[in-house]
Write a structure and sequence with these properties.
ABC-type D-xylose/L-arabinose transporter, 2 domains, alpha+beta, 8 helices, binds adenosine-5'-triphosphate, OB fold (Dihydrolipoamide Acetyltransferase, E2P), Rossmann fold, 6-stranded mixed β-sheet
Length: 369
């Protein structure tokens, strides 16, 4: 197992003297032994570059990459003892599954006999339930089976680190869900520290111990899935994590004794100060409501804002529905139960408990509450 650290890591492509592309800037990430880190962010935010610096395929321009406290910046990729899994599987097409799995062990020349290698290949094939496929060539496998072989090739050597670069991107939605659970289980079972790149927030939420949310090469937040969802450090994280998107409106804030009063275009409400960690010193705020936190006022008493909303579209998702509507504040999305009597054009009153409201500073976009 390996304790992975990135310390003030920066990567500039092109000539740093002539304003090259800053792909990653001042990145500090600490991944304890055996943890599963997910690097999450939109296209071009620097996820792959970060993973490649961990794997030794890219040199940092500044800063240190450390494995168990030892700086590995100058250690070549092949000597870092990391295993990488990519979205295109990268299997050898002319070799059988058995040969693909055993290849790394044979090449390492580590004193294993043919019988040892055969035993280890069988063990890993059993773990991944691909024993029946051992004599097949990659062209005879489905996408999910190929990805299992690619995973098998990574675990067979028991590396110090697993690095995954969007490994499920080429699989269909259903298989992606199955495989991400399998990767999660496999990683917990073998306990190898892992870093995993994805732009899919749902995938990140289900698989990660810690998520590093990146934007424009900068770390926005490093936290557990629960922290990045419930306590996003800023507007970017709040909007990138969670689905459907957070509703956002402008508001004015004033102090009223033990509460903050929030006034929006067509609704106002109070937030008790005890729900706010530190004093808010801002007159204008951005007010965020997660669709999951809105509910129909008739179903429960409320101290929150009351938002008269006309239903536009009802999209059932299992026992709940995503309802898109138009309120006096503007377009609104709610995820609610008890939706069966709702139809387009219906009027409903939505509300939210004050403790579930997010407030952001409109200038810095950092979380105020
Ligand atoms: P994606 O999800 O699209 O793969 P990403 O978050 O992995 O994106 P990176 O591939 O790390 O992002 O790229 C980060 C930035 O660095 C981008 O602006 C990209 O254009 C730039 N970049 C990446 N590799 C190179 C390179 N070899 N030369 C120049 N610029 C590069």
């Amino acid at each position: 197992m390996t304790h992975l650290e990135l310390d003030s890591v920066k990567k500039v492509f092109g000539d740093p003297e002539k304003e090259g592309v800053v792909a990653v800037n001042d990145l500090d990430i600490d991944v304890p032994d055996g943890d599963f880190l997910v690097l999450l962010g939109p296209s071009g935010c620097g996820k792959t570059t970060t993973l490649r610096m961990i794997g030794g395929l890219e040199d940092p321009t500044e800063g240190e990459v450390r494995f168990d406290g030892t700086v590995v910046n100058d250690v070549k990729a092949r000597n870092r003892d990391v295993a990488m899994v990519f979205q295109d599987f990268a299997l050898y097409p002319h070799m059988t599954v058995r040969e693909n799995l055993g290849f790394g062990l044979r090449r390492e020349n580590n004193g294993m006999t043919d019988a040892d290698i055969k035993e280890r290949v069988t063990e890993v094939a059993e773990m991944l339930e691909i024993e029946e496929l051992l004599n097949n060539k990659p062209a005879q496998l489905s996408g999910g089976q190929k990805q299992r072989v690619a995973l098998g090739r990574a675990i067979i050597r028991e590396p110090r680190l697993f690095l995954f670069d969007e490994p499920l991107a080429n699989l269909d939605a259903k298989l992606r869900k199955t495989m991400r659970t399998e990767i999660d289980e496999l990683q917990s079972e073998v306990g190898i520290t892992s870093a995993y790149v994805t732009h899919n927030q749902e995938e990140a939420m289900t698989i990660a111990d810690k998520i590093a949310v990146l934007n424009d090469g900068e770390l926005q937040q490093l936290g557990t899935p629960d922290q990045v969802f419930n306590e996003p450090t800023n507007l970017f994280v709040a909007q990138f994590v969670g689905s459907p998107d957070m509703n956002l409106f402008e508001g004015a804030l004033s102090e009223r004794g033990d509460s903050y009063r929030i006034e929006m275009d067509a609704a106002s409400f109070d937030i008790p100060k005890r729900l706010v960690d530190s004093e808010i010193d801002s007159d204008d705020v951005l007010v965020g409501f997660r669709p999951q936190d809105l509910y129909q006022a008739r179903t429960r008493a409320t101290n929150g804002p009351e938002l008269d909303t006309q239903v536009r579209v009802v999209e059932p998702v299992g026992t709940e529905a995503v309802v898109h509507g138009t309120s006096a504040l503007g377009d609104l999305t709610a995820k609610i139960g008890r939706f069966h009597d709702l139809e387009p054009e219906d009027q409903m009153e939505l509300t939210i408990a004050p403790e579930h409201v997010y407030l952001f500073d409109p200038t810095t976009e950092s979380l105020l509450k």
